[in-house]
């Protein structure tokens, strides 16, 4: 199997998910039964087959950039540019299999060493009318790092990988300042000697950077316990063409609107985040994962809602619907799955929905005390306790998604995810209508869903879709399905067009439905203030 995610500069996914790279024959047979004959397999094209236009970076701009970062840190090398040509959505990956579909390749890659260099790079780019795409881990799944030129003379990828330091730790306040290019595992490695953890674990943890997580309002798998990334951000340092901007002087403030939130979620369109001050917590002494099954999606959602509203959620709380639970059992072809099915049948569970809980705490006793009432509530609601096995299996496989996606892509499967969120009262309608939209747009798809971020007032829904790939028009096939789902979500609007992936290019047409015309003009005015000539991330967030 081809490892298409092993980008030279961005590093491979860790071996933790390697087991998922191989799909057992039984799983492939099951998939064929469900979605029909698999689409034509298009292998990953070698780099030499991909069209890379000549760099349009004017020589004057190149010389000025070299004057800031050093000549060796401004490159127009073909491989380096290709490496930053887009993110990791299904469509991004398809474009590497269908060379004719066209990649957005930056004209150059610029690698500043520190916040001061980032600031000066922006000033040079503004002076030479060159667009700038801030590039963190490149894991965007909404077109956030597509190298769109807009009306600019050229566009460069501003890669933050050299901003890789822990700047300071304030143990008393439990705040750490990290540079924007630090990736998830490195952040944990840097914080560990101080006894702290960030506790932010998205599925893209291995590659996503601190700056990217802040710029997209990321949500990690333990969001119920540690909060979303924006909840952790106490301050930001932002380079903008209008000058440097630092925000965050106190834990809370009534000094006008919270401008930190113009930086957090700005997706590179309002500045380049160079440093982030984050709230950290002591490294937990104990981590415990476990599984339960609840009979029926609606009942299970009701159980999670009650836990959220009564402050009883585990740090990781992840509820799969009947289809996702079924697929997990089908793809986990071992004897344990068969035994589990038999056990659930004996317990008269007709529509099993798997609930995974993960707990962090200073000691086993503290974790036991926290989970006692939650487990009591689950039992009272008829949930079947499955013990540590399913929870641990989920923990072991929690980074395997990208590798499994590669295996499915190799088989000719259309495989993609989309996420949204709504208030509890609208969640059933959102769930039903998005499923119907996806089913209506694709032939014989498997549409599965989980709820992995719950709040007192509502929750997110995360859909995964599998369908036989349309070999003749694979990109259009998914674009139509995604458009149908987004239009459904934006109708009303019923929910948000993105709970944690961001807007990028893909969701920009739906932003107005969510924030209104006034909201769009407020964002546009903010952009004019910090980026008067519009060099920052052309075409993203605001169209
Ligand atoms: C397999 C997979 C699983 C994922 N799972 C999750 C998940 O569980 N939770 C989640 O929230 N997301 C998830 N994502 C989406 C993605 O990882 C997040 O959006 C992440 O926050 C992006 O971080 P990054 O460093 O890779 O940013 P990039 O992809 O490099 O950039 C994302 C956006 O932020 C901008 N940007 C990047 N760095 C900066 C900066 N320093 N200053 C200003 N703008 C910047 C970019 O221009 C772009 O618009 C997943 C993606 C993949 C491929």
Automatic annotation (TrEMBL):
Residues annotated for substrate binding in this entry: 405
PANTHER family linked to this entry: ALKYLDIHYDROXYACETONEPHOSPHATE SYNTHASE, PEROXISOMAL
**Name used for this protein in its record:** Alkyldihydroxyacetonephosphate synthase
Task: State the family it belongs to.
Answer: Belongs to the FAD-binding oxidoreductase/transferase type 4 family.
According to the lineage, what is the superkingdom?
A: Bacteria
Organism name: Amycolatopsis arida
The entry's keywords:
FAD, Flavoprotein, Oxidoreductase
Which residues does the Swiss-Prot or TrEMBL record annotate as the active site?
462
Spell out the Pfam families in the cross-references.
FAD-oxidase_C (PF02913), FAD_binding_4 (PF01565)
Query: Domain named FAD-binding PCMH-type: which ranges?
Result: 102-283
Question: Can the keyword Flavoprotein be found in this entry's annotation?
Answer: yes
GO MF terms here are: alkylglycerone-phosphate synthase activity; FAD binding; oxidoreductase activity
| Upper classification of the organism | Bacteria, Bacillati, Actinomycetota, Actinomycetes, Pseudonocardiales
Q: Which residues make up the binding site for FAD? A: 134-140, 267-273
Site described as Important for enzyme activity, positions?
318
Which Gene3D superfamilies does this entry report, sorted A to Z?
A: 3.30.300.330, 3.30.465.10, 3.30.70.3450, Uridine Diphospho-n-acetylenolpyruvylglucosamine Reductase, domain 2, Vanillyl-alcohol Oxidase, Chain A, domain 4
Q: Which cofactor does it need?
A: FAD
Q: One GO BP annotation here?
A: lipid biosynthetic process
């Amino acid at each position: 199997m081809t490892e298409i995610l092993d980008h030279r500069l961005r590093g491979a996914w860790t071996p933790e998910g390697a087991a998922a790279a191989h799909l057992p024959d039984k799983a492939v047979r099951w998939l064929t039964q469900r979605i029909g004959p698999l689409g034509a397999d298009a292998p990953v094209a070698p780099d030499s087959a991909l069209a890379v236009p000549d760099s349009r970076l004017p020589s004057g701009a190149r010389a000025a950039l070299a004057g800031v970062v050093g000549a060796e840190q401004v490159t127009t090398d073909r491989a380096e540019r290709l490496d930053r040509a887009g993110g990791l959505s299904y469509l991004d990956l398809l474009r590497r299999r269908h060379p004719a579909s066209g990649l957005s390749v930056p004209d150059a890659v610029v690698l500043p060493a520190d916040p001061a260099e980032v600031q000066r790079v922006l000033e040079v780019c503004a002076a030479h009318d060159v667009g700038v795409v801030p590039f963190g881990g490149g894991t965007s799944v909404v077109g956030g790092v597509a190298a769109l030129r807009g009306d600019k003379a050229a566009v460069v990828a501003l890669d933050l990988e050299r901003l890789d330091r822990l700047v300071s730790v304030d143990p008393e306040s439990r705040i750490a300042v990290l540079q924007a290019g630090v990736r998830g595992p490195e952040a944990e490695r840097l914080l560990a000697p101080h006894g702290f953890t960030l506790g932010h674990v998205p599925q893209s943890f291995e590659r996503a950077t601190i700056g990217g997580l802040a710029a997209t309002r990321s949500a990690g798998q333990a969001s119920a316990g540690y909060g979303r990334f924006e909840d952790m951000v106490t301050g930001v340092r932002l380079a903008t063409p209008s000058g440097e901007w630092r925000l965050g002087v106190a834990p809370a403030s009534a000094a006008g609107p919270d401008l930190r939130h113009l930086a957090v979620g700005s997706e590179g369109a309002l500045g380049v985040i160079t440093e982030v001050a984050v709230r950290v917590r002591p490294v937990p002494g104990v981590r415990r994962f476990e599984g339960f099954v609840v009979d029926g999606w609606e009942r299970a959602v009701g159980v999670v809602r009650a836990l959220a509203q009564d402050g009883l959620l585990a740090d990781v709380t992840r509820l799969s619907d009947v289809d996702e639970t079924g697929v997990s059992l089908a793809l986990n072809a071992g004897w344990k799955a068969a035994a589990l099915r038999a056990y659930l049948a004996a317990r008269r569970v007709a529509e099993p929905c798997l609930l995974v809980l993960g707990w962090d705490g200073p000691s086993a006793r503290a974790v036991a005390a926290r989970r006692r009432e939650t487990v009591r509530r689950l039992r009272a609601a008829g949930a079947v306790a499955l013990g540590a096995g399913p929870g641990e299996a989920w923990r072991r496989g929690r980074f395997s998604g990208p590798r499994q996606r590669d295996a499915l892509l190799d088989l000719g499967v259309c495989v993609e995810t989309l996420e949204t969120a709504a208030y509890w009262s609208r969640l059933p309608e959102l769930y039903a209508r998005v499923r119907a939209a996806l089913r209506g747009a694709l032939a014989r798809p498997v549409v599965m869903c989980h709820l992995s971020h719950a709040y007192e007032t509502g929750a997110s829904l995360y859909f995964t879709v599998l369908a036989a790939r349309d070999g003749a028009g694979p990109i259009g096939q998914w674009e139509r399905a995604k458009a149908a789902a987004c239009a459904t979500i934006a109708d009303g609007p019923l929910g948000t067009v993105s709970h944690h992936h961001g807007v990028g290019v893909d969701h920009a047409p739906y932003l107005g439905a969510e924030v209104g015309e006034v909201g769009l003009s407020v964002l546009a005015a903010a952009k004019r203030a910090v980026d008067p000539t519009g060099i920052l991330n052309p075409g993203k967030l605001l169209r």
